[in-house]
Automatic annotation (TrEMBL):
This is Molybdopterin molybdenumtransferase. It comes from Adlercreutzia caecimuris B7. GO terms for molecular function: metal ion binding; molybdopterin molybdotransferase activity. Catalyzes the insertion of molybdate into adenylated molybdopterin with the concomitant release of AMP. Belongs to the MoeA family.
Length: 418
């Protein structure tokens, strides 16, 4: 095992070590945002019948082929069709039927002319009225054909597709009320540190609130997993060993924060090594160089740093892709855009640097990024107040204002292509 590996190597290692969760069937509403685990087919034609796309008059297009402003064609209205109704009669020469949006097109009709451009010569435009047309209509005008969206038996959502809110409506129309998806991974979140107290307590001397557990649980939830915040673990090898061993038995993925470096009270590396197989200890990135990963009892265990920003970046760059892999997602990278630095960036580091920053658009249409003044790895606040991470590649020289850099959009889904 090499001492330090690249971010790409680390991601491939973690994602390659996880297994997809088993398939379960969920109700249609619960499937939104999740990945279909099998092809889904429609049980009927969608739409099941040809219907009007708007309020108007159903007719045979040939009847008004000669219509013009100077020589309008008049037709007698012989009936009305509301949504949900069916016209059982026949439409003869010189006749038409008033029709509402979504109503079934009469068998004799092949076009619909919208109500607003039809003149009323006699009556009120309803049954018995005489109406006039001043322009021809094409066959199929304002008509939605039967099976326009899907045919009976046709696959409408393929395995691997992410189901959107619109997709839920589409599947409902196709009669699909349950969807096979990968089960959401259950993630154990364990904060280590004898200095930690629950957020419900006011910290005493030398103590701080446990914010990491809540942030990492939120990250897991946003990645589609089901987080479980476990009790705080004190800084001893035995306490952490017992907590990790128990969590590895009961959950699909274990995330710890704190104790990932090489200090006297940093135990996650020896714990994973004793309980299972230690696969990774450091990654060439900043913040978050200390990233521990291994397998315990067949369960992935990831030890994040205790510094909040380092833990957050490590989760988003390494754990989130793994959790998405377990659920069948195929897109793993958040979208990136090129942006112009608004201030000099003086950092020089052999590691890849992720600067918390705010992305805006300049008057010339170019994206601009302003790095947060405080890039401390010990703070969540700058992440809350920014909307991207600007990337300084490994070994980069100091970058002056105006330099173009890549920016990761963490709040934009991986499936979006920019």
């Amino acid at each position: 095992m090499r001492e330090m590996i690249s971010l790409e190597e680390a991601r491939a290692l973690v994602c390659g070590a996880v297994e997809p969760t088993e398939v379960e069937r969920v109700g249609l509403l619960d499937a939104v945002g999740r990945v279909a685990a099998a092809d889904l087919a429609s049980d009927i034609n969608v739409a099941p019948f040809a219907h009007s796309a708007m309020d108007g008059f159903a007719l045979r297009a040939a009847e008004i082929a000669s219509a013009a402003e100077e020589t309008p064609v008049c037709l007698r209205v012989i009936g009305e069709i509301g949504a949900g109704d069916v016209f059982e009669g026949s439409i003869g020469e010189g006749e038409c039927v008033r029709i509402m949006t979504g109503a079934c097109l009469p068998a004799d009709a092949d076009a619909v002319v919208k109500y607003e451009i039809v003149g009323v010569e006699e009556g009120d435009g309803k049954t018995g009225s005489l109406v006039s047309f001043t322009a021809p209509a094409k066959v199929g005008a304002n008509v939605r054909a039967a099976g326009e969206e899907a045919r009976a038996g046709e696959v409408v959502v393929r395995a691997g597709e992410v189901i959107s809110a619109a997709g839920v409506g589409f599947l409902a129309g196709c009669g699909v009320l349950e969807v096979p998806v990968r089960r959401r991974p259950r993630v154990a979140v364990i904060a280590t540190g004898s200095e930690l107290v629950p957020p419900s307590e006011v910290p005493g001397p030398g103590k701080i609130r446990n914010s990491n557990s809540f942030a990492m649980a939120a990250c897991a939830q946003r990645a589609g997993a089901v987080p479980h915040i476990l009790p705080i673990v004190e800084d001893t090898f035995e306490a952490l060993r017992d907590a990790v061993a128990a969590a590895a038995r009961d959950y699909d993925f274990v995330v710890t924060t704190g104790g990932a470096a090489n200090g006297d009270f940093d135990f996650i590396k020896p714990v994973v090594a004793e309980l299972g197989e230690l696969k990774m200890t450091t990654v060439n990135m900043r913040p978050g160089k200390a990233q521990t990963f291994g397998i315990v009892n067949g369960t992935p265990v990831f030890g994040l740093p205790g510094n909040p920003a380092a833990a957050y970046v490590g989760f988003e760059m390494l754990i989130r892709p793994a959790l998405r892999t377990m659920q069948g997602y195929t897109f793993m990278n958040h979208p990136t855009v090129r942006a112009r630095l608004t201030a000099d960036e003086k950092n020089r580091d052999p590691r890849r640097i992720f600067l918390r920053g705010t992305l805006t658009r300049a008057t010339d249409g170019t994206f601009e990024v302003t790095p947060s003044r405080n890039q401390s790895s010990g703070l969540f606040g700058p992440i809350q107040k920014t909307n991207c991470m600007a990337i300084m590649p490994e070994g980069t020289e100091p970058q002056p204002a105006g330099s173009m850099v890549d920016c990761i959009l963490l709040d934009v889904p991986e499936e979006v292509c920019l």
